[in-house]
Amino acid sequence: MSEMKKIYITGLWILCLTSGVSAQTYDIIERRNSWNAGANVTGIMMDSISASYAELYGKNNHGDFRNYYEAKEAWSAGAVAKSITHLKGYSLTGSFSFDHTSGKDMSGSMFIHPGFYPVDLLEFTPGRKDLQTYAFMGGIATDISPNWRLGGKIDFAASNYSKRKDLRHTNYRLDLKIAPSVMYHSGDMAIGFSYILGKNSESVKAEVIGTAENSYNAFLDKGLMYGAYEAWDGSGIHLSESGVNGFPIKELSNGGALQLQWKGFYGDAEYTYSSGSAGERDAIWFKFPTHRITSHLSYHFKQGKKEHFLRLNLQWSHLVNNENVITKETVNGITTTHVHGSNRIFEQDVFSANPEYELISPRTELRLGTNISTFRRLTTQMYPYVVSEKMICNQTYISSVFHLGKLDLKAAASFAIGNFTEKNRTTATDTEPGDPPYRLTDYYNLKNEYATAPQATFHLGLRYHFNYGIYAEVEGSYTHGFNLQYIDGSNRWNETIKLGYTF
């Protein structure tokens, strides 16, 4: 057993031993306290109910309605434990999780989270891929005076991703977020502030082990599926560059958040600035600064034993990607890298709004809402060619849980639809323009159709509560896509089984 797994198993036991007992499920306790949506961990003390659970699960996904980088057949298994515990003078929150996912005949993006960064790497030989993710979250809040609270929270995740068929690759990813926080409260009013420090990084290392004289190509997507298509170890892909270990990419972020609660109203606003780069040491190929703003607004009121929640979640981000112009000079065996400037090759603005209503009563839970997202993208990789894209995506959803003695019946449905427009233009120039940049048109069509095609999803689940807090659950979902032109199939199924313990 690896040291990492030993640490996680130990953490799960500690979490179990230090947790209290609650009659309500963890997800209800977490959602009913609006402070849990933001960065300020001291907000857990605005509620007094403790809740904890530990769970094992297995999932199976299959069907042809999928994104270009997803597997036709995939399974995953894992364990998760979460806790919110209130003790005398202080409160604790924490979670541990492990997940292993394996997919057959996968190709496309080589990154763990495709689309997270403004550049992407694609390979084209289908094979099995495996992803393991370990995650940890811990937070503590305490009273330091009758009106002041102090706390801190850390989120950490580590992932490794591998493909064992040429062109094979191995990825390592780290995500870290730290948020020390303070709160002042008096009567029905509370004000909080959080400082936010974050870092994420991923390294992609590719190799060919087979002896067959095959040539494997790769594609570096620099935006809207325009980029460099050549042999995987070519200079335009950056997977096999002298002096650089694979394809490293990272983001460092700093920011802050303000929170305000007055009676049943809660609101927060969070701003972070991220400095991203791809490459290492002197060989920095891309730099991509990003501004992000997030806000959560909610209103909570009661009617007898029923609780009502009105929520509005807002997100906005602005990203630009600059590609450095680099040359290398070797003198007497010493290679020196020269950066001659940079070209802005990509811009993206994203805005999303998610209004939601939730009802919680002794026998019923009901949630309904809609999520509207708009995307504006502009690529200018090669002068004088300019391509812009506007996309809007909308998903409307409803879910419910009916408590029938020891049985919980779950049902949910959602419908999503979108559209996009693209414009191409050539900037006026006195010189004869060269050929436009290369584009993976088929993959662009697949990606955009999956994002905007009409699709409906139906979900059913049944949970049975045994004695002593033990429960078992089965779930199933079905998704159907409509009016498809590029995706191979219109159906996708998912089955899940869970065995858990609440304490």
Summarize the structure in words.
This protein has 503 residues and is mainly beta. The chain has one domain. Helices cover 7% and strands 67% of the residues. It has 3 helices and 21 strands. The protein has an 18-stranded antiparallel β-barrel. A hairpin with a 2-residue loop joins strand 11 and strand 12. The two termini are 27 Å apart. About 2% of the residues have low confidence. It comes from Bacteroides ovatus. InterPro entries: DUF6850. This is DUF6850 domain-containing protein.
Radius of gyration, taken over Cα atoms and rounded to an integer in Å: 25 Å
Sheet bearing the most strands, described? 18 strands, antiparallel, barrel
Question: What would you call the quaternary organization?
Answer: single chain
Count of individual helical segments: 3
What structural category characterises the helix and strand content? mainly beta
Tell me the domain tally. Answer: 1
Secondary structure: elements and pairs:
Layout: H1 3-17, H2 26-32, E1 51-62, E2 73-87, E3 90-109, E4 120-143, E5 148-163, E6 168-186, E7 189-207, E8 217-221, E9 226-231, E10 247-262, E11 265-280, E12 283-303, E13 306-331, E14 334-360, E15 364-379, E16 385-404, E17 407-426, E18 438-439, H3 441-452, E19 455-465, E20 470-481, E21 491-502
Antiparallel strand pairs: 1-2, 1-21, 2-3, 3-4, 4-5, 4-8, 5-6, 6-7, 7-10, 8-9, 9-18, 10-11, 11-12, 12-13, 13-14, 14-15, 15-16, 16-17, 17-19, 19-20, 20-21
